[in-house]
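Quick illustration, no need to memorize.
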Amino acid sequence: MSGRLTEGAGRCPARRRSRRLDPLRSGPVGLGHGEAGGGRRRSPRGRFLLRQPGGEMISMVMVAVGVYARLLKHAEAAMACLAVDPTILLVVVGVLTFLITFCGCVGSLRENICLLQAFSVCLTVVFLLQLAAGVLGFVFSDKARGKVSEIINGAIVHYRDDLDLQNLIDFGQKEFSCCGGVSYKDWSQNMYFNCTATNPSRERCSVPFSCCLRDANEAVINTMCGQGMQAMSYLEASAFIYTNGCIDKLVNWIHSNLFLLGGIALGLAIPQLVGILLAQILISQIRDQIKLQLYNQQHRADPWY
C-alpha cells in the first residue's frame, strides 16, 4: 500500500512536469503578446523591421522643408499657383508618409492589431494606386500626354509668380534642351512674355534664358539672350534657342529609359510588399497568441496544468 502511494506520488510530478513542457502549451515561437503558457516574452518576427525610425525621420524632414519653403513665399504668389506648387506636394507626401510609418512603428511596438491593419491597408492602397497610375499611363498614353501638356502650360502661365516653379522649369529646359510645351512660342501664354502688340512688358516676345543655346566658353550667363525670339521664325530662332517643346523631349526620354524607370518602380514596390507581408504575419501571430491565452485561461482549472 505504501509502495503504491510512493509510486503514485512519484508519477504525478513527472506527469505534471511533462504537461508543462508540452509545446502546445508553451506558445508559438517568436510571439510577444504576454507570457501565455509560461513561455518567455519574445519579439515577434518582423517587428524589428516595422519599427525602424527611418521612415518617420524622412517624412519629418520632407514636411519641414516643405513648410519652410512655403513660409518664405509671398502669400499672393503662393495662392496664384497653388495647383502646381511643389512645396504643397512635398508637405502632403511627408504627412502621409509619417502617418503610415507611425501606424507601422507604434502598431508593432504595442502589438496593436488595429494600427497594424491600418498600416497594411495604407501600404496596399498606395501600391495599388501606383500600379493603376502606371497601367493607365501606358494604356491611355494620349490622355496622359494631354494632361502633361496641361500641367506644363499652367506652369508657364505662373512662371514669374513662384520662384521654386521658375527654378524647376529652368532646370527642366536646360536638362532636356527644350523650350515651352509644344514649341518655344508657348511662352506667349505668360503675361510677361506675351507677344501681342498691346503687351507693355519689356520681356514681350521673349523666352526665358534657360531656352538659349549654351556656350561652353561663356563665363557669365546672359539672362537676356531670349529677347524677341518669339517674333522670329523657327529657322531663325533655332540659331539662338531650343525651338522644340519639352513634351516631346520628355516622351522620348521616357521611351529611352524604360528599364531605368521600371527598376525605380520595382525598388519602390518591393519595400511596400515586404511591409504588407510582415504586418500580416505579425497580425496573425498576435491573434494566435491571444487565442492561446484564452485557451489557457479556460483550462486553468485542469488539475494536471
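The CA atoms of residues 205 and 232 lie 9 Å apart.
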